[in-house]
Specification:
The structure is a single chain. Helix content is about 45%, strand content about 15%. The protein is built from 16 helices and ten strands. Strands 2, 3, 4, 5, 6, 7, 8 and 10 form an eight-stranded mixed sheet that branches. Strands 1-9 form a two-stranded antiparallel sheet. With about 400 residues, the protein is of the alpha/beta class.
């Protein structure tokens, strides 16, 4: 056998078994490339990337440039324990630690998953109920524009986006309304990515980022006219304190709108399966503890807001119930783009990530990140199907006018 064949056999001998393994590995690599091209974002904005790009540590934009992925994901998982998805006692005992270390926990989480999110979802990291005649992208934009309309944003307003991610909603809302929007974010990597996206879309005159913890904002009272959050304050370790800081930062008479992650009235804390789903959603999304609807509304009031309206957006806006459930994108659709969101598509991606890590084309620990996201997708779907969880509890609140 020639030296070339021995080399192709990775130096472990020219046996039939080794050759067959090499063929399988070669097919897997071809599969990676083909699947990557098939599942590349087709929105024309360059927001998505191939799965191989997500995992390539040599990429300038890669999440894993200067991080030990394996250590980061292990440190993150240690805040939840080994039995988080089965409702074990260990999960509860670690709650206090997660609350104390929420900044590290959330930053580690987004360092690990941001590129995966953009690959699978786009630049807006949130859910949206979809009307039967809408595309996925149209439903996401409508969900964002709804906030802008409720807040009354216009070219004369200055608004804050709390927990803005890489700024997908911020850019959409600024373009739609003409309002200036400041994205509050405590994650360096997301700010770096989002700033590039602002420049790409020529929106730097309307959209900007502020590196800050929304539990302690470095701004004067009444800095913003209005504010919103999209599935972001679920990360807050204390709802009242978080909402109070937001209330302080906007002007008297200013409005605050948002979509909050909550356990619905269908959630039974004595049902072990319900508790396991809740715990699974928490561990897979960097959350300390998911609030209930009454807790959210009471926290807004304690923080100083008047609650104007609130309802479960995933049930449909009042008068319009013609909607596809919010969790359906995680089940996916059989389109080229939609396939990567399906359970089968996610499993295929996970297998490819495993192959890449085994072949040392992806950092050690990448498979753990993929499994984390795959598991939580299943938890989210089950929580939605059982109607015990929603990521889209809408509220609109107003900061009272100052007394004379």
């Amino acid at each position: 056998m020639s030296a070339a064949v021995v080399w192709l056999g990775l130096g472990v001998g020219a046996t039939a078994a080794v050759y067959s393994h090499f063929v399988i590995a070669g097919v897997a690599v071809v599969g990676v490339v083909l699947f990557s091209f098939l599942t590349q974002s087709d929105d024309g904005r360059g927001s998505g990337q191939m799965v191989t790009g997500v995992l390539n540590s040599a990429q300038e934009k890669g999440t894993f440039n200067d991080r030990s992925v394996n250590k980061t994901v292990d440190d993150y998982a240690s805040l939840y324990g080994q039995d988080s998805r089965v409702g074990g006692k260990e999960h509860g005992t670690l709650l206090k630690r997660r609350l104390n270390l929420y900044t590290q926990m959330v930053n580690d989480f987004y360092d690990l998953v941001t590129d995966f999110y953009e690959y699978g979802w786009g630049e807006s990291f949130h859910f949206a109920p979809r009307l039967s005649y809408e595309t996925f992208d149209e439903s996401m934009r409508r969900h964002e524009y709804f906030l802008a309309a409720r807040l009354g944003l216009n070219p004369k307003t200055n608004c804050a986006d709390f927990g803005c991610g890489v700024g997908g909603p911020m850019r959409a809302i600024a373009t739609f309304s003409g309002s200036k929007v400041t994205g509050i974010n405590n994650n360096d990597y997301q700010i770096k990515v989002g700033t590039k996206h602002n420049q790409r879309d020529h929106l730097s005159h309307l959209c900007s980022f502020m590196k800050a913890d929304f539990m302690k904002l470095p701004v004067a009272d009444g800095t913003f006219d209005h504010a919103y959050e999209i599935e972001a304050t679920c990360h807050a370790p204390d709802k009242v304190s978080c909402y109070r800081e937001i209330c302080r930062s906007i002007k008297p008479g200013g409005m605050f709108a948002g979509y909050e992650w909550v356990m619905t009235k269908g959630f039974d804390p004595n049902n072990k399966r319900h508790v396991a789903i809740k715990n699974g959603i928490e561990v897979g999304n960097g959350l300390a503890d998911i609030a209930t609807i009454p807790h959210v509304l009471e926290s807004l009031k304690k923080a100083g807001f008047e609650v104007i309206e609130s309802f479960e957006m995933s049930k449909g806006t009042p008068g319009n119930e013609n909607q596809i459930p919010w969790y359906m994108p995680l089940k996916g659709s059989w389109s080229v783009r939609g396939f990567r969101m399906t359970a089968l598509g996610r499993k295929f991606t996970h297998v490819l990530v495993t192959v890449l890590e085994t072949m040392r084309l992806a950092p050690k620990g990448s498979t753990k990140v993929s499994k984390l996201l795959n598991d939580t997708a299943n938890d989210l779907v089950e929580g939605g199907e059982l109607d015990i969880f929603t990521p889209s509890y809408f509220f609109l609140a107003r900061k009272p006018l100052a007394r004379a």
